[in-house]
Fold each of these.
Amino acid sequence: MTAAVAELVGENVPDELVAERLCRACVEGLDVDGAALSLLTAHPARSTLWATDPVAHRLEDLQFTLNEGACVEAALTGAPVLAADLSHSAETTRWPVFAAAVAEQTPVAALFALPLQWGSVTIGVLDLYRRTPGHLSPASWRDALAAADTAALLLLDRRTRPGSSTEDLPGDADDDRNGDDGWGQGVFAHPEVHQATGMVLAQLGTGAEEALARMRAHAFAERRLLVDVARDVVARRLRFTEEMR
Amino acid sequence: MRHDSPSQDPRPGREREVGRAFVELADTLVDDYDALDLLDRLVTHCVSLLAADAAAILLADPRGELRTVASTSEDAELMDLLQLHAGEGPCLQAYRDAAPISVPDLTTTDRWPAFTAAADATTATVFRSVHSLPLRLRGEAIGALNLLHHQPGSLPPDDLALAQALADVATIGILSERVIRNSGIVAEQLQTALNSRVVVEQAKGILAEHSALDMDQAFERLRAYSRSNNLRLADVARDITTGRIDPTSVTGRHRSSGRG
């Protein structure tokens, strides 16, 4: 299901296209009626990148406005939130205002919110809804979590990729793609990448995203893989300083 | 504990130690616990109870790919990575077959040529024997427990049974009582544990840089701080990465490496 989305890795596409493909894939592949993807910024303000239909859009608006609901909780806790039956007392007491508004204004019965995470950074939330109550099947769950993982990877890629704000950067003749630093599904499996992120974060006194962006910029400039740059950082063969910019 | 005559009592006093370990693990399960903490305690117990030199627990992510969530050393993690990279090896086999795999001597097995060749080529890899136990759930596996020894040899059947019991505790711990509501929760818990691991690695990096420690030492401090303050490992790690906890208070050391 996520194949259509995963192929966007390394492509210079806007966040909205990532969100659109992902939400559509979820509606097509999972037993849900609609999906929406919202970004979280450092400020309380959020922005909905894509919603598959007006109901999905309404759900996002309600949660933003009321500042409660599955999506808000997922963003705060960093854990997926499942509300298989919004009319159930457990959910109505959990988010009284939100549950009442959903019942009044939408046909939504079940809501599933999945945080898009990279370590302590919550990038956004994927919301899935259904008009009938009930849990997602285990297979659907797996796919939904994989979709959220893929979305996190793609959006983090967009935020930290060297030169992503400008036109294409000059590429290596050996590379199929410009700026290929080995970013992909496998990158999160390397503990060195996360350890080095922490080290560079401490070296520069910045946040995790900025630290990752600096390592990727270095990898790009040196035409190396991010994993190799991370290993050099962990082995203390490479230090990042403000002057290196 | 390994030796040539498995019939003899492996180590006096071990029974009591085993009992204590299970009591401690059960206590963890009763409290509002974090899966990562539990798994970390488990690998530590594996090392002491089974006289292993290192232990690691891997969980399958939503794509079915294994990822290390707890390990007693960076070397153990490297062994995991070599297997994942080679796409073969004892822990992958244990996971796929949902059955235990024993490799008494890595240098004489030809079952996973790509993995053993990679392990050979890596000087940091000092382990001669590997025992992998599946984390079993309804006939399938959700991950694997790896026991690593510097010396070649087989674990006696009693030790293997104990290792499997510890692996089963890991499975129970990950699932928790919430699983009763919905089997989808398994994936949710795995997801949270896997992401917590990312935060822990980042926090290790911060501590290592701040106080000139290696990654194993950084993790030791992180773990010691969490336990002595009765906090979750993942929460402490998160607070370190977001600057809410000062690295100095965790490592007890001021910045010792000069900045750029």
Amino acid sequence: MNESFQQLRLDGVGRQYPTASGSTVDALRDLSLDIRRGEFIALLGPSGCGKSTALNCLAGLADLSSGSIWLDDTRIDVLPPERRGFGMVFQNYALFPHMSIRDNVGFGLRMRGVPKQEIAQRVKAALSLVQLEGHESKLPGQLSGGQQQRVAIARAIVIEPPVILMDEPLSNLDAKLRIEMRAEIRRIHRQLERATIYVTHDQDEALSMADRIVVMRAGSVQQVGTPREVYGRPHNLHVARFMGYRNVLSCRVEQQNGDHITVGQQQIRLQGTGIEVPAGTQTVAVAMRPDDFEVAAEAADNVIEATVQQIEFGGRSSLLIVSSPIGELFVRLSGQFQPGDRVRLHIPADRVLAYAEAA
Amino acid sequence: MSTARLALPARGDRRGWLVAPAVVVLLALFVYPFLYGVVISFQPLEGGSIWSNYVHFFTTSTEWGTLWATFKLAAPATLINVGMAVPVAFALRRNSRKQRIVTTLLVVPITLGTVLIADGMLTFYGPVGWFSQFVHGLHLYSDEVRLTHNYWGVLISLVISDFPFVFLLTLSYISGIDPTLAKAAGTLGANAWQQFRLIYLPLLVPGLSMAAALSFVQTFAVFPSAILLGAPAGPTRVISIAAYEAAFEQYDYGLASAIAIVMGFAQLLVVCAIFAFRQAFYTGPATSGKG
């Protein structure tokens, strides 16, 4: 396939599945996305949100019900998987159990009729890229999970595909290895300068690896943006919840001036930032991350008085569950606390996000 | 064989005795008759060397010839069954309504006895049967169509009665292969045929050799259809007929036992050969690693 491509374009891609009762469900609705060469895109969402369906549509493992996929000027959604030439890393790695690591990695080249000598060289180079030399003659079953995962990556990249698709490749690894492999995958991505599309349900993974994140829910795209945008300014309450805004409270709108919004409940008044809240809205859902709270200075505004209920120790900081006049809050603070302690919490106005939706 | 071993019960633990009834049944129904057969095979009716029953079998052409006649039926029947089961099972590997219906239809012959199949075949494939009339009616073949009371009749009946068995085994082996492997091969550029040849087939070999071994053992023991559909005095005088005649026409139980033991050895040899072949292939799990 075209190795000097500039852009992969998804145009209104949709996928429906028939159900047992004879109706159809939308696993994926109207996904439109332009992916530039060299970009690292994460498809992020809870299970069943359609992210794997999107990946399978790209790989050619699922047919589209609507829309089209283009690699520059070539329409590729009509091609079978073997003619798209995308590299894919499967969640369970899908290494061929009866073939040596060498044959696994060389499989794609063999299918392309590459001469034996060249296969040997390129397999060697790919294995050295994933730092797995010396295991060439082993069978996949003889390697650890992390090693198998790297074989799967080597097998996908050795064919020098324009696009590499990864379906939750780290979900079977332990926490430490997962962090290590994130950096590894980023490094390989930079070295290859192709496009990577990475499916995950782990927001940390998406935030730390991707150039752009596509947040999905129930088959449709909720937000497309850089990690900073998605993290700092979630488009809607679903994205906010998914990005770790654990405190979602229903509040009355006291005052609204453009994006600046003052919300209240009981005797508490909070300055916040409205996210596309139409003028005249009566109640809003207010979303706040536990990490954005701090212990208030004497004369600060946006202060909530609260009592510590429970403490989850977490090293440098602890997660506190506190009760306040506006309800129970999750707060992450550093310092020592005891249940029953009174705390004055401050949260900056740009970290209090108001949405015109039910909480 | 399972890798689990029977742990010796701790002293004073009498639960181990639970195995006793099964052991008694096994001893009474299998081990004793087998050993009895071995012993009387070494006691020739007319006296002489203890080997004389075996010597008689291997020096009389009407006797040892049955080994070859049986092999000529069992080997092709096994190959045909396995050869047909693979594509059919492959086409039906995904669990679906269609799979369940076709599987049920294909398995029906298992429920029919050999005699019923023979009866049906005599009507269908006989000289004036439907098949013969059909072939003549379409002018495909003008001579007499002879598919009963000869080698072909027995072979066809072995295929009919044994195919469902081999098919079911093969289907379970094929559905045990992770379909993601073929998908992965697809994304790497393998077309459908390459996915089958390079992924499915090598992973199937251990299962297929197991199915072939079982099918061979079953077809090698052919008896009723060799009489009902074959030429039991001629080309389909299989080894079980030789043993039957020795036992119940000549009342020479010693010779009959010797023939039965030769038959068992022949089966064992072929099964060992198949398993040796199997060892040359990957025999581990046909899944794709972790997950």
